[in-house]
Write a structure and sequence with these properties.
The chain has 246 residues and is of the alpha+beta class. The chain is 34% helix and 21% strand.
Length: 246
């Protein structure tokens, strides 16, 4: 079951947010978190990195309904809740795609659409990939296809128009990409709209789950678009800013 953080409207209860309440065992941040802002390549299961040694974090609270504040041995850690949720959703959908295909939703009315012959060839060659991505597509005559279902995490009003866009996107991405990478591109493009936003107030236990899920990710330090999910402000930096150290 996907986390439905985007539907939560409850207000964080300050009384529940006590730093000493939660102690989690999680991996340490990299020395220079901003390095992860460059585009991160997709990892396949056999390539997944081994988690670094465990380290303690404590959740302090949420700043401005956006930044989760945490403390670790080095100092302060800020997590962008939107970027963090994007990363969590992305890896969850990718895992489903690899294992059994993403969850789909039947269209009320199956739709047929025509494509150029060269696009038809491309679709024929990639039918199984498209189906694993949750697109229920089949051949329906020469250069014509029928769609009867779409990934349920997408919000699509015109299935044929959506498919033309997907095919354009994926064809341009596919020159150097593996088939699964095509699905990752689609997921990365759509996941943003479904993640919790800045200003979505989260309950404390939702924040806790988000952080736990994030730290379970293969690449917890950046969102699928390459932006950082968390940054570290060290105690040494704070000492400098407060003039305790020259
Ligand atoms: Zn992003």
């Amino acid at each position: 079951e996907l986390p439905h953080l985007d539907t939560i409207t409850g207000v964080a209860d300050p009384g529940q947010v006590q730093g000493s309440e939660i102690v989690m065992r999680v991996p340490p941040l990299p020395e220079r978190p901003f390095d992860s802002a460059s585009h991160a390549p997709a990892l396949h299961p056999q390539q997944r990195v081994t988690k670094p040694a465990q380290q303690q974090f404590e959740i302090i609270g949420v700043l401005s309904k956006l930044y989760v504040l945490m403390e670790n041995a080095k100092g302060l850690v800020l997590v962008d809740q939107h970027a963090a949720h994007e990363r969590v959703l992305f890896e969850e959908l990718r895992r489903r795609m690899e294992q059994q295909g993403v969850p789909t939703q039947k269209l009320l009315l199956p739709q047929t659409f025509d494509v150029l012959p060269r696009d038809a060839d491309w679709i024929e060659q990639n039918l199984s990939v498209l189906q694993k991505m949750g697109i229920g597509i089949e051949s329906f005559g020469p250069d014509t296809f029928k769609i009867d279902s779409l990934p349920s995490f997408l919000d699509v009003s015109d299935a044929a128009q959506f498919m033309r866009k997907v095919i354009d996107d994926l064809k341009s991405a596919s020159n150097s990409a593996s088939p699964m990478r095509l699905g990752e591109e689609m997921i990365a493009k759509s996941v943003c709209r479904h993640a919790v936003k800045a200003n979505d107030p989260l309950r404390y236990r939702e924040v806790e789950k988000l952080i736990r899920d994030l730290l379970d990710c293969d690449l917890p330090y950046c969102c699928p678009h390459g932006r950082p999910t968390m940054i570290q402000i060290s105690l040494a930096e704070l000492e400098k800013k407060f003039g305790r150290k020259i």
